[in-house]
Design goal:
By secondary structure, the chain is α/β, with parallel strands linked by helices. It contains nine helices and eleven strands. The strands form three sheets. The chain has a six-stranded mixed β-sheet with strand order 5-4-3-6-7-8, with helices on both faces. Helix 1 crosses helix 7, helix 5 packs across helix 6 and helix 7 crosses helix 8. Bound molecules: pyridoxal-5'-phosphate.
Length: about 280
C-alpha cells in the first residue's frame, strides 16, 4: 500500500469528520485506529465533543461550524485524502457544509448517519437529522445506517423498505447493518440502484459493542482511499470489523470496544506475530 516518493513514505489518507468520544470506543478515535489498522492515515477533523463513558452519553456539544470549515479547508489545501468519512455531525449547518465538501471534492465518501448511541443517548437532534436526510446522505458515495437508523430516517419499520426509500431519496449506496438486530447471524445488506441487494452474513460475536459502526464506516473509507472498488471495500471492511469484534476489549463497566489495534510489545517468550 505504501510507496516511497522523494525519500518519504506515502500512505492512503482519509479525511475523517467525527465527534470525540472520551472512552475511545467510538468517534474520531475509532476512525484513527480503524484507518491505522488498514494502513491508512486519518486526517482527524472534530465536529463535536461529548461527555460519555463505555455505558452512556451524558452530553454533546457541537463545535462552531466555522472551526469545522477551517479544519477541513486547511487539510484539503495541504494533504491528499483519497476518501472522506463522516460520522457524528454536530448541527444542521455542519451537515450542509460537509455535503458541499463531498460534492466539491468528488472524493469517494462514507457517511455513517449517527443519530443515537447504542446505549440510547441522543447524539443528533431533529434538525440535524433532517439536514442529514436532505443534504448530506444524498451527497455520499455510500451510507452505513444500522437498521434502527434506517427506520428512524425513513419512518418505515422494514429495514429493506427503508433502504430502498433512502435510494429513492437520492442515496447512491446504502449498507444497512444488522449488528443490533436479533439472531445468531449478523446480516448486512448492500442496496444500490442498479442491481439487486447483496447480503453479507457474519457469525455473531455475542456481546454488545461500543463503536462498531464507526469502525466499519472508517474501514470502508480506508479501503476506498487505498483504491479498492466499493464491493471489495465493503467486504474487506466488514472482515476487519469482525476481527476487531472478536478481539474486543473491556475498557469499563459498559460495552466492550472493538480491538482495532492488536499489536503490542511482545511478552516474555512471545513473538509479536502471536499477538495478532
Ligand atoms: N459517540 C460518538 C462521538 C459517535 O460518533 C458514536 C457513534 O457513531 C457514538 C458515540 C455511539 O457509538 P455506539 O452506538 O457504538 O455506542
Amino acid at each position: 500500500m505504501n510507496t516511497v516518493m522523494n525519500g518519504s513514505t506515502q500512505k492512503p489518507q482519509v479525511l475523517c469528520i467525527s465527534g470525540h468520544d472520551p472512552s475511545g470506543g467510538a468517534g474520531i478515535q475509532a476512525d484513527i485506529e480503524a484507518c491505522a489498522a488498514l494502513g491508512a492515515h486519518a486526517l482527524s477533523v472534530l465536529s463535536s465533543i461529548t461527555v460519555q463513558d463505555s455505558r452512556e452519553v451524558y452530553a454533546v456539544r457541537a463545535l462552531d461550524e466555522d472551526w469545522l470549515v477551517q479544519q477541513v479547508q486547511h487539510l484539503l489545501a495541504d494533504c491528499r485524502p483519497g476518501a472522506i468519512k463522516v460520522g457524528l455531525v454536530g448541527s444542521a449547518a455542519q451537515a450542509r457544509r460537509i455535503a458541499g465538501y463531498l460534492r466539491e471534492t468528488g472524493l469517494p465518501s462514507v457517511v455513517d448517519p449517527v443519530l443515537r448511541a447504542g446505549g440510547g443517548g441522543v447524539l443528533a437532534g431533529d434538525d440535524t437529522a433532517e439536514a442529514l436526510r436532505a443534504h448530506l446522505l444524498p451527497a455520499a458515495s455510500v451510507i452505513t445506517p444500522n437498521a434502527r437508523e434506517a427506520r428512524a430516517l425513513t419512518g418505515l419499520d422494514d429495514a429493506d423498505a427503508a433502504a430502498e426509500a433512502l435510494l429513492q431519496a437520492g442515496c447512491a449506496n446504502v449498507l444497512v447493518t444488522g449488528g443490533d438486530e436479533p439472531g445468531d447471524t449478523v446480516v448486512n445488506s448492500w442496496h444500490r440502484r442498479s442491481a439487486a441487494a447483496v447480503r453479507f452474513e457474519w457469525p455473531r460475536v455475542p456481546l454488545g459493542f461500543h463503536g462498531a459502526g464507526c469502525t466499519l464506516a472508517a474501514s470502508i473509507a480506508a479501503c476506498l482511499a487505498a483504491g479498492l472498488d466499493l464491493a471489495t471495500a465493503l467486504s474487506e471492511a466488514q472482515a476487519a470489523v469482525h476481527l476487531a469484534l472478536r478481539h474486543a476489549v473491556a475498557i469499563g463497566r459498559g460495552r466492550a470496544i472493538p480491538g482495532r489495534i492488536r499489536s503490542g510489545p511482545a511478552g516474555p517468550g512471545e513473538s509479536r506475530d502471536a499477538i495478532r
